[in-house]
Amino acid sequence: MNKYREILKIGIPIMLGQACVIILAFADNIMIGWHSVNELAASSFVNNMMNLFILIELGFATGMTPVIGSDYGKKNISGIGNTLRNGISLNTSLGAIGTVIILGIYPFLDCFGQKPELLPYIRPYYLLVGVSTLFVLGFNTLKQFTDGICAPSVSMMFLMGGNLINIFGNWVLIYGKLGFPELGLTGAGISTLAARIIMLAGFAYYIFKSRRLEAYASAFKSAKSSGKEMRNLFNLGYPLALQMGMETSTFTFSAVMVGWIGATALAAHQVALTISQLFFMMMQGLAFAVSILVSTAYGKKDIKGVREYARKGYLLILGISVIFSAVVYIFRHQAVGMFTDSAEVSAIALSLIFVLFSYQFGDGLQLCFANALRGIQDVKPIMSAAFVSYFLIAMPVAWALGFKTSLGIIGIWTGFPVGLTTAGVFFFFRFRKRLKMLIFAE
Question: What is the rounded CA–CA span in Å between residue 149 and residue 377?
Answer without folding.
Answer: 17
